[in-house]
Amino acid sequence: MLGVRHTGRVVWRRRHASRHYVGYVLVADDAVRLAGNEQDTGIYAVLSIPHEAIEEARVGRGLREQVVGEQAVVLELADGDPMYLRPIGTGPLSIDGLARKLNVAPSGEAATAAQR
């Protein structure tokens, strides 16, 4: 695929959602795409988040910023309702590594928030 910077298996949810989705994250030149299945209902969801809508990606700091009881990456969005993601599987990508991969400005350079 052209313009793909990262793909990986993740578990993700919105801040106020009680259910999580198991699927994939794709970091492309124009957006972050999430796709996943909610296990209990079988609902399959796909989200495309333009880089312009992402204010920051950082490692979660507390219990409220977890997914399935584990530390997650917080994707702060311009609409104020963040996404929480954590990598799954046996790959080498850590929570910090996923946060760095998601912290991409529209120009393709690391966001200044990642350097703070």
What does the model show?
- By secondary structure, this protein is mainly beta.
- The chain has a single domain, classed as Roll (PH-domain like).
- The protein contains 2 helices and 9 strands; from the N terminus they run βββββββββαα.
- The strands form 2 sheets. The chain has a 7-stranded antiparallel β-sheet with strand order 4-3-2-1-9-8-5, covered by helices on one side.
- The C terminus is likely disordered.
Per CATH, the superfamily is Pleckstrin-homology domain (PH domain)/Phosphotyrosine-binding domain (PTB)
Q: How many structural domains does the protein architecture include? A: 1
Helix-strand category: mainly beta
Instruction: State the helical fraction.
Output: 10-25%
Q: In DSSP terms, counting alpha (H) and pi (I) runs of 4 or more, how many helices?
A: 2
Strand order of the largest sheet: 4-3-2-1-9-8-5
| Secondary-structure element series | EEEEEEEEEHH
**The CATH topology, please?**
PH-domain like
Beta strand count: 9
Poorly predicted runs: 107-116
Gross geometry: globular
Gap from first CA to last CA: 32 Å
